[in-house]
Amino acid sequence: MRLFKLLFFSLCLSAISMTGMASPAGSGAKWISVAGFEHSPNQWYSLRKTVTLDRKPKKAPFKISADSKYWLWINGTLAVREGMVKRGPNPRDTYYDELDLAPYLKKGENTISALVWYFGKEGFSHKDSKRFGFYMSGQAGKIAVVSDGTWKIRRNEAYTTMKGGKAANYRLPESNVSYVATEEMSGWTGTGFDDSAWEQAEVVGPVGVAPWGRLVKRPIPQWKDFGLVKTKDWKREGNRVKLKLPYNMQFSFWVKVKAPAGKAVSVSTDTYSWLNDTPVRGQYITKEGIQSYEHLPWMSGHEIFIDLEEGVELLEAGYRETGYATEFDGDVVLNDPFMMKLKEKANSTLYVNMRDTYFDCPDRERAQWWGDLVLLMEESFYAMDNDAMNLSKKAIRELVDWQKPSGVLYSPIPAGNWDKELPQQMLAAIALGFRNYYTFTGDLETYTYVYPMVKKYLGLWNIQENGLVNFKGGGWNWSDWGGKIDAVLMEQAWMYMALDTYADIAEKAGHPADAQEARAKMARIKRYANRNLWTTEGYRSPEYKHGIDDRGNGLMVVAGIAGPDKYEKIAQILASVRNSSPYIDKYELEALYIMGKERQALKRTKQRYAKMVKSEYTTLWELFDLGNCSYNHGWSGGPMTMMYKYIAGLRPTVPGFKAFDVFPQAEGFNELECNVSTMRGEVKIDYEKSAEGVYMRLEVPKGSEARIRVPLSAGETKIKGKGRAEKTDGPKPDKYRYYKLPSGKWKISYTDTAI
Q1: Tens digits of residue pLDDT in 81-108
Q2: Residue ranges of domains in the chain
Q3: What is the CATH number of domain 654-752?
Q4: Please, are residues 100 and 59 in contact by the beta-carbon 8 Å criterion?
Q5: Which residue from 62, 236, 582, 681 could staple onto 138, CB 3.0 to 4.6 Å apart?
């Protein structure tokens, strides 16, 4: 298992000017484009430059940016597959890639070739600059390699927009791309190609020039390439070939065919067949003879559909999976097949929703909705290695750096054709997104960076003197899918949690007065809620006319507004009311664990997720019933978090896992294993329960400290390890004894008459 790389803290999202390179020659780099450029969607450009090196360099640091994506070859060898993340660290600026290209360079002549895909469309996670552009600044030994007017450029007419069928969803900046093989320029990426008829690139200007603004270093790694898989294992139904994938993935397709020229090979996935919000498709238009083609844009699905025009013979097909460069190095193992299948599907759903940003789903939107993201982040902190944390950091910086002048925060961002605020999602981002990020990573710089933006946003909300949070309208007053939503009640809980996180941020940023004011507001909200919103039926707002809502009652427990005296009534509500979608149901499950109702939480999980677990799909759905909704929605992975956080009981208590609790709530399980990569190393838990008692092995990483608890009803307790276990305090009154364990390997056992 990989330990956290110290490079995490060197990844900075602040804007970086590249005019300050050490080499004077490097400062000559300019943004280049094509003369007479006219804005329209889905344009592809080929660029070439030959440089001569007096020796093979040991290092060749390059900074490359493009609007919108690029593929880079050096001497005919592909060096970068789909460079760049979608544009928009903020409304003005552009990301860039930092690469070492030395392995691809040689002594003598070197040909650098780039294929740039200009989206030319706004999207829910992409800001269109309205101009194609390319930038390169590199140093190969003593030779500077820069983008300037000496580059040759040509519109690549082989790439065009697919005709027929539905256009890609308006939320996507990507178009349906068709590659016309009869228009291809054979050999243009390699050496010896004659580009004398190509145009000279047009110089637009240095870094900072409009419309691309400043350059901000890409904060996430280059994509992981799983390699090309070729197969003849498919099913044929007339002119359609169906190739089943091993799981729902992000992929680009590959085909080998025999055909006359001008025939269409059209590719979609199973998502296209039933989603009204259409995902992207791709197409290959043949030349004469036997030929193979690999599509560059990615799509997603469980199954590839290849539609062959009459006269086309499919010889072979395949796919290349790509995705975010991270590994699943956390795991929890329970002796329960249902929960293990649910965890497996949650992992798949999480990964297919990670790339340029976190997604709500990878097919119709690819959009970074923050309500979804809060759940995805927490899942990744437990299940994935620490490289995944960079995507969370990027998301936080983007959210606050896209703040409107009015103070409004909104998502999804980077924003192109959407700018509406979802107030409760923004409170969730602050309350749990920012707090969880800091708790798991200990990244104080990012945590305090958001302080002025959060202060400005929360200042837009009105809290009455009596503690009532006035319902705040936004561009979209969305609380959850489904009906019978007590949105006013939910808003009290979300604001209470947001103020709690803001108070912590303000304190750590050196603003104790702001922290004190926030906590005073929290006290007023809590007092108002318990005096005015608590009824004999549970929590409800006076305006709510639909019985009782499980959502707000669960959130009151998670927020800490509801005390133990209200737990039994709320548990009764959660036993009978099923209004929530998987989005809010995660918090209701969490409420049950907080209240010590782990058996009820397990029962609710199995009842609500039964259809998803039994389904043939390898991912989890947007809703509990699969109608016309996405079948790969990351927010449905909440039960996986519960397995780590409550069933195994692993929760950080001091940022960066400097200290953590291990409080298993394993009712219904005789044994479990859990391991998680933390900032300080790997935590391992091995827990067994029998009629004789409880036995647990625990590994605490160096520089960290664990706290365990033993029931007061326990008999003899044995704690063995090289260090010294010390008794410590817990909440009062309580039914446990608590012990602190320093780093090392520990064995804990006790008998318990309550078992």
Answers
A1: 999 999 999 999 999 999 999 999 999 9
A2: 6-158+183-220, 225-323, 331-647, 654-752
A3: 2.60.420.10
A4: yes
A5: 62
